[in-house]
Amino acid sequence: MTNQELQQRKLAAFARGQGNVYPVYVTKAKNAEVWDVEGNRYIDLGTGIAVCNTGHSHPQVVKAAQQQLEQFSHSCVMINPYEVAVELAEKLTRLAPGPSVKKAMFVTTGAEAVENCVKIARAATGRRGVIAFTGGFHGRTNMTMGLTGKVAPYKHLFGPFPADIYHAPFPVAAHGVSEEDALKGLQHIFKAAIAPSDVAAIIIEPVQGEGGFYPAPASFMQALRKLCDDTGIVLIADEIQTGFARTGKLFCCEHSDVEPDLITMAKGIAGGLPLAAVVGKAELMDAPLPGGLGGTYGGSPVACAAALAVLEVIAQEDLCQRATHIGALFNQRLTALQKEYPESILEVRQTGAMVAIELVHEGDPEQPDTGLTQRIIKLAPEHGLILLACGYYGNVIRFLPALTIEESVLNEALDQFEVLFCAASSC
Q: Within this chain, do residues 27 and 15 fall inside the same structural domain, yes or no?
């Protein structure tokens, strides 16, 4: 069976809305490398959108999942709980940033984690409003689409969305939005749309994911923390893409020395198995009544076992430090490439191993080069790479390598990307 034959079968059987970036069908993967059904090898610089931080099929993660599967696969944590879920909750509440006593809950997807944060914040405060930021991405359910600050492709055709959701500008210096502008935007919301006393929560990605890998400055995170403290608003850190050592800390908000009230966790949490969590201050987490939170598959015993192994691997292999090293190497090589193509690469952004380049015409931030971005994505398989695009204007290439990637494979990937960039630029 060829890639093209499988693609035709998929197009006939899958809904159009669940598209795929590449007509490349995976048959096996190991650490940072992937092989397709035709035997072609690729270096994966997307890791399933920041899911396989510990690499594809890390032996410890595989072993933990297999051992749990041999014991039992499911009983629903809301009916007959099990020790592996309790142990994971204990570890996550200890590892989450800040001194407050914390509790956890488990669901299956990142969007569910976000929705449950909103539920918890509303139950705890008795308030209705939620503020998110332009360019932010929080999921594809109705509530999380409403929170997401980008229309196409996430919100187009899918309204109406829930009421009492408001968007403030996200600080992006490269596009002329300062921290002061963003804070003024919040004040405008309070003056024109909803009083702070009616706002249950503010949700923010410490580094925007789909929005283009723009980091929230530490001073802005600290200003949000003070604002929320002053007004009784719950501060939610959406760490779905930034968590589990991706940015050089176990959780990205540690860079700003800010303790959120609630944290969403997913993607890299379980090495590829579906699992998500909310971890937050105990008094907030306990606001919903019994039965108000949960779901059939939330806290799957197999996924919890894998997640415990992921935490062990992060500690044993010092993946936070490894993320910093990987990011520094990407930054060095991409900054050198930017000097060769200053009219095309507006900015190199790097927080740990969460790296991006923004592509523009003639060095102008107001002229996004989506054409070059798409050529790079399209040509990537020919150069043995798997890459992802993102960005408010669809003009950002993002790099999310496995934190366990071998040094030789990492350098090979960077070499191939330079060749790829040159080829796409000359098209």
A: yes
SS3 188: helix
CB 210 within 8 A of CB 150: yes
Q: Which residue has the tokens 């193509």?
A: 341
Residue 66 lies in a domain: no
Asked whether residue 303 carries a pLDDT value surpassing 70, the answer given is yes
Residue with tokens 């800390």: 249
**Domain tally for the chain?**
2
> Amino acid letter at 117?
C
Distances (CA, A) of 356 to 19, 146, 267, 330, 345: 23, 26, 19, 9, 10
Q: What is the CATH number of the domain that holds 384?
A: 3.90.1150.10
For 118, the token pair is 């909103």
265 and 344 Cβ atoms separated by less than 8 Å: no
Residue 427 pLDDT greater than 90, yes or no: no
* Residue 107 dihedral angles phi and psi, to the nearest 5°: -135, -160
C-alpha 10 chain-centroid distance: 26
**Ordered alpha helix ranges (H), 341-383:** 370-379
Residue with tokens 């150069």: 383
The domain of 392 spans 3-58+318-425
Secondary structure element (H or E) that encloses residue 105, with its range: strand 102-107
Q: What is the pTM of this model?
A: 0.97
Query: Which tokens sit at 404?
Result: 């366990």
Q: Please give the pLDDT value at position 152.
A: 85
Would you say residue 291 has pLDDT above 70? yes
How is residue 26 written in tokens? 């995976």
What is the CB-side half-sphere exposure of residue 268 using CA atoms within 13 A?
A: 30
Cα 266 to Cα 278: distance, rounded to the nearest angstrom: 9
